[in-house]
Amino acid sequence: xxxxxxPVWKTLHYFAITAxxxxxxxxxxxxxxxxxxxxxxxxxxxxxxxxxxFLVAAASGYALIRIGPGNSLxxxxxxxxxxxxxxxxxxxxxxxxxxxxxxxxxxxxxxxGEHASVSARIVAxxxxxLWIGVVYWSRMLTFLAGAI
Length: 148
Description:
With about 150 residues, the protein is mainly α.
């Protein structure tokens, strides 16, 4: 394998995660009340870009696992990788809650100067904490190889 393959996949993975968390972070922060002068609906229009970034991050992450499975899957399994996957699953469940309960439709109606509901703010806060966890555990992958 060429020496440049892994750096290219990692760079693509990092850019995709940056775009994804940047967009989700802006929307979550607005739901939490930061930038109250902005309506939430126009920010929600960025979410298809976040979904595209998620697909690129997932594909590049899969490629990185296929290239070097020992770094994440072991044996023994990397504790940071297990934690990162757990956080991603929890993010997925949080997103299901956001859409299934109608909080997304409610948040779309939040105009400039208005507050989102307490429920929407809780889901947004949980989302931010979980995404910070994904970034943290992603950085710990190198340091915790073979810890389990």
